[in-house]
Amino acid sequence: MSLSFSERILFEDNHLLLVNKLASELVQGDKTGDECLLDQARAYLKWKYNKPGEAFVGLVHRIDRPVSGVLLLAKTSKALSRLTIQLKNHDWQKVYLAAVKNAPPKTADSLTHFLAKNEKQNKSYVVKADTKNAKEARLSYKLREKSDQYFLLEVILYTGRHHQIRAQLAAIGCPIKGDLKYGFKRSNPDGSISLHAWKVTFTHPVSKEEITVTAPPPAGQPWQFFNTL
After folding, report:
1. How far is Cα 97 from Cα 120, in angstroms, rounded to an integer?
2. Cis peptide before 218 (omega within 30 of 0)
3. Among 13, 89, 93, 117, which has the minimal tally of Cβ within 10 Å of its Cβ?
4. Could you give the domains of the chain?
5. Is the pLDDT of residue 2 over 70?
6. Does 51 or 217 have the greater pLDDT score?
């Protein structure tokens, strides 16, 4: 059993498992055949609890492969169904950190755009509201800090659209560091982008307590340039 997975567990009880996803780590298996976080979680639970069969792991939400941060998994079907309803009703608060090269137009702002996904390109575009299949995307951001090279934005997500933060920040002239797809000039060495799912607040599906879980950003650039992290 890989120790690195267990070291990345942020919270665990009988119903939930929250893990700090690595940048460039696949959440769910795909055609690449690369090991995914879900498989690691199943192996961890089978090992920890000495389960004879396959352990149940429910995927409540997703994080893009190049993005790091807190991922919430359900250990029971009851927890999965209740958390899915919460997410659908926008009852969670999800806070991200994004490192960008350009200063945002304002130090704090709320953004509303309409996004349309291009399936072939796996990319979302800002479009007019009456565009076919356009979906409203809302977030707010504030400037937390500035280093010599980058600006650190704290982003609160209100809707969960495809590549939403990436597309909306690019639309205001602030593509995320390493995000070639949305206009940043150079990639990060490991293929990641400097976007981190930092904090999630939700209601526990069984105890009904409010829970906030925070995931430390990755070591190295650009995160070590910021004093507030």
Report:
1. 28
2. no
3. 89
4. 1-89 (3.30.2350.10), 92-205 (3.30.2350.10)
5. no
6. 217
